């Protein structure tokens, strides 16, 4: 956030945060997988997309909204612990952003896909890591969940992130981005 | 089948029960502060009696705020199967990791000790307490009050250049747009269904199929959201909204004695809860 929060950043963060909340309350953000964690999730995707589009600050805020909403909606004791539900989610957008920036000059599509993958992985690894530390799961179970939930999550994340961001970037220069003065604020 | 499309009906975000009780009338800043203190205390507390005490406090809060208990219980109901599965797993496999305590039963990797039993019971109780507590908070505070309270509470962070007002605005936008997007999503699901797509009818074990079913909803949803964001950006900039400019407030909060009392009470409760040694 070199220039602080612009109107654009505020609005994008709010809108993508709304999607994170919506996916949570309608249960559409959950992919039912029969494992210990109950469900795989796609709710980290708004945070990933926010991170790619508007930088790590926006990604972090969306992650926070996702974390708080999953904390409030949780049906599993694991996510009723703010340390597990909120803290790890802050980093989803940040790692996604860093991955995107790092690979941007190699290939746009590769960078977007990789950011989606790394963002999902951040969520999986940090949440399960904290779950083990806080004593909700033994390590073996967490490792199984990482494979059974983490992999489908990462794949879905790559597909959706690519589809949304690639479509948006392509159209962005030619009129989807309505405001012409956003850069000046 | 039709019920699956009624997204807007199921959204209980900002569900608010106006009973005008003492808890409802508390200053949201103090209410949020007290809530945060209690949540932290519950997260740390791992004794039986301490958790029983916390549970009693939660039930008392329902009483004081005149909110029927079934609002809290309805939050727990869908979670019961998860709690049971998790409890069994913790009970069977956690004995070795939870050091200390007497081991009652051991067979291969299965080991049950007094510590693993404590873990199971305490985490189940903790879960119920947090649900009760957050139900009381959200049912007794409107979303506007919550965001205003949060903005004021975070106020001091402005000194270290944290954009508090912008942050509160983001939360407000997010909450404002949830019902709008729910409506959009409902429309898209109906549009897809009218073309022959089916949602949620696949068997649960066909995970790949069920995941694929979601793409035609999720991707357009993001696109709709982003184009709405563009409209909002344009509208805000057209009205000369400046992030970080100083602005006055519509609502002013003034702390009364009862607000301080609530804060002190939450600290006392937390100290008692953590002080109980069993």
Give a quick summary of the entry.
Chain A is mainly alpha-helical. Chain A is 70% helix and 3% strand. Chain A has one domain: Arp2/3 complex 21 kDa subunit ARPC3 (Orthogonal Bundle).
Structure description:
The complex is a heterodimer of chains A (185) and B (278). Chain A is mostly helical and 185 residues long. Chain A has a single domain (7-176), classed as Arp2/3 complex 21 kDa subunit ARPC3 (Orthogonal Bundle), CATH 1.10.1760. Chain A is built from seven helices and two strands; from the N terminus they run αββαααααα. Chain A has helices spanning 7-25, 45-54, 56-73, 82-85, 90-103, 108-133, 139-176; strands spanning 30-32, 39-41. Chain A has a two-stranded antiparallel sheet with strand order 1-2. In chain A, a hairpin with a 6-residue loop joins strand 1 and strand 2. The longest helix of chain A is centred in the C-terminal third of the chain and has 38 residues, at 139-176. The mean pLDDT of chain A is 79. Chain B is globular. The termini of chain B are far apart. The model of chain B has no long low-confidence stretch (mean pLDDT 79). Chain B has a two-stranded antiparallel ribbon. Chain B is mainly alpha-helical and 278 residues long. Chain B contains ten helices and two strands. Chain B has a domain at 19-163 and 253-278. Chain A: This is Membrane protein. Chain A: Keywords: Membrane, Transmembrane, Transmembrane helix. Chain A: GO terms for molecular function: transmembrane transporter activity.
């Amino acid at each position: 956030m070199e220039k602080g929060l612009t109107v654009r950043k505020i609005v994008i963060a709010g809108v993508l945060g709304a999607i994170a909340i919506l996916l949570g309350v309608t249960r559409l953000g959950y992919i039912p997988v029969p494992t210990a964690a109950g469900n795989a999730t796609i709710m980290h995707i708004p945070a990933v997309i926010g991170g790619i589009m508007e930088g790590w600050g926006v990604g972090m805020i969306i992650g926070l909204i996702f974390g708080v909403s999953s904390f409030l909606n949780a049906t599993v004791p694991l996510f009723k612990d703010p340390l597990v539900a909120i803290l790890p989610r802050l980093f989803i957008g940040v790692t996604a952003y860093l991955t995107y920036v790092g690979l941007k000059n190699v290939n746009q599509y590769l960078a977007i896909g990789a950011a989606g993958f790394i963002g999902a992985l951040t969520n999986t690894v940090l949440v399960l890591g904290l779950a083990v530390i806080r004593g909700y799961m033994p390590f073996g179970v967490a490792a199984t969940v990482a494979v059974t939930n983490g992999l489908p999550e990462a794949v879905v994340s790559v597909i959706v992130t690519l589809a949304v961001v690639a479509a948006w970037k392509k159209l962005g220069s030619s009129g989807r981005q309505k405001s012409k003065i956003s850069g000046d604020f | 089948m039709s019920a699956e499309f009624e997204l807007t009906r199921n959204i209980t975000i900002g569900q608010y029960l106006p009973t005008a009780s003492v808890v409802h009338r508390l200053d949201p800043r103090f209410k949020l502060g007290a809530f945060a203190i209690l949540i932290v205390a519950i997260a740390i507390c791992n004794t039986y009696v301490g958790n029983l005490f916390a549970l009693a406090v939660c039930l008392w809060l329902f009483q004081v705020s005149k909110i029927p208990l079934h609002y809290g219980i309805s939050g727990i109901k869908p979670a019961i199967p998860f709690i049971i599965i998790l409890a069994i797993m913790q009970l069977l496999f956690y004995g070795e990791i939870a050091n200390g305590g007497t081991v009652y039963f051991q067979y291969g990797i299965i080991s049950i000790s007094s510590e693993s039993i404590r873990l199971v019971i305490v985490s189940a109780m903790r879960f119920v307490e947090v649900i009760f507590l957050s139900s009381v908070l959200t049912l007794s505070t409107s979303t506007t009050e919550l965001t205003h309270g949060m903005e004021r509470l975070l106020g001091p962070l402005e000194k270290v250049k944290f954009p508090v007002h912008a942050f509160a605005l983001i939360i407000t936008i997010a909450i404002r747009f949830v019902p709008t997007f729910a409506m959009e999503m409902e429309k898209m699901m109906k549009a897809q269904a009218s073309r022959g797509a089916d949602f949620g009818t696949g068997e649960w074990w066909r995970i790949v199929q069920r995941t694929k079913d979601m793409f035609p909803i999720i991707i357009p949803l993001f696109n709709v959201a982003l184009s709405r964001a563009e409209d909002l950006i344009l509208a805000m900039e057209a009205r000369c909204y400046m992030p970080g400019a100083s602005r006055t407030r519509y609502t002013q909060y003034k702390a009364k004695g009862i607000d301080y009392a609530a804060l002190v009470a939450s600290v006392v409760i937390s100290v008692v809860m953590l002080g109980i040694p069993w």
